[in-house]
Amino acid sequence: MASRSASRLARRLAGLLLAAGALLGSAPPASATLRVVASLPDEADLARQIGGDRVEVTTIAEGTQDPHKVPVKPSFVVKLNRADALVVQGLGLEHAFVPALLEAARNPKILAGAPGYIDASLYVTPLDVPTSQSREQGELHPLGNPHFNLDPEQAKLMARAIAEGLARVDPAGAASYQENLARFTAVLERKIQEWQQLAAPLRGVKAVSYHEDMVYLARRYGLVMVGTIEVKPGVPATPAHVEELVETMKREGVRLVIREVAYEAGLADSLAERTGARVVTVSTLAGGLGTAGYVESIQADLEALVAAVQGAPR
Ligand SMILES: [Zn+2]
What is the DSSP string of 264-276? Predict the structure, then answer.
């Protein structure tokens, strides 16, 4: 009798284990957070704002790095292998590290074209799209200028693409993502109004930058970009190019040399010295100036630019 009931119990236990296994295997429990990897700090902040407590976000690049030159680290292969979603800025900005990491990670859920590959550039209309294959814009911006995150109007579009992407991967969270998108967009709208006021002194001010990454910010706030220290995106300055730039700066009355924090200061300093312009350090990525998130980073950049204009000789 005893042995028969024991074997019945064992069969029941085995059945329970099988059922539990089936449950675990089929779908994650409702409380599981989505594992999101963001290529850059801007995408990470937006994914956190929109994902809320449904997501856990890891960032690959740091705000002080040049997004075109982020080194590929093995630790990120593991993160990407386990990720439910990858958020990129897109337009080829992450060409130096995302394609290689994706290949190594072997995670079909987040490959380009898969639901878990979230491209923040989806709704952005790019500037500086090359009209020919001549590589006129240099090697680094073949799909148009990818530095649209510096225009907060574009950040609204980025946030929308991210909200839709997260909902694709996690349909149960769709309402929550829409709600967070609406809240974040409202914050941005308010800041955009403030920033129009704050940045008013930039209108009509002539500037050069190290890299061709100010085009969207300049369009929004009326800075007039007259050249870059690099010959073309990714092509370092030559002595002849620097001489030509000095002449242009003097002729045009350039007041600002914008040095992005990822680039060395030496050339920017010497250009300013030779032309009477003022150097201002900004970051093209969130967190590059020690700020916490996207909004804070735009705030810091605009404050730095305005302070430099107000301190720069006319
Ligand atoms: Zn670039």
Answer: -SHHHHHHHHHHT
What are the tens digits of pLDDT across the range 142-177? Answer: 999 999 999 999 999 999 999 999 999 999 999 999
Q: How far is the CA of 296 from the centre of ligand 1 (A)?
A: 21
The SS3 of residue 226 is strand
Q: What is the pTM of this model?
A: 0.88
Residues with CB under 5 A from ligand 1 (ion): 233
CA of 93 to the centre of ligand 1 (A): 7
CA of 265 to the centre of ligand 1 (A): 17
Query: For residues 95 and 174, what is the distance between their CA atoms, to the nearest angstrom?
Result: 30
Render pLDDT for 60-70 as a digit per residue (tens, 0 to 9).
999 999 999 99
If one counts every other C-beta atom within 10 angstroms of the C-beta of residue 235, the result is: 14
Question: 281: alpha, beta or left, given left = phi > 0 and alpha = psi -120 to 50?
Answer: beta
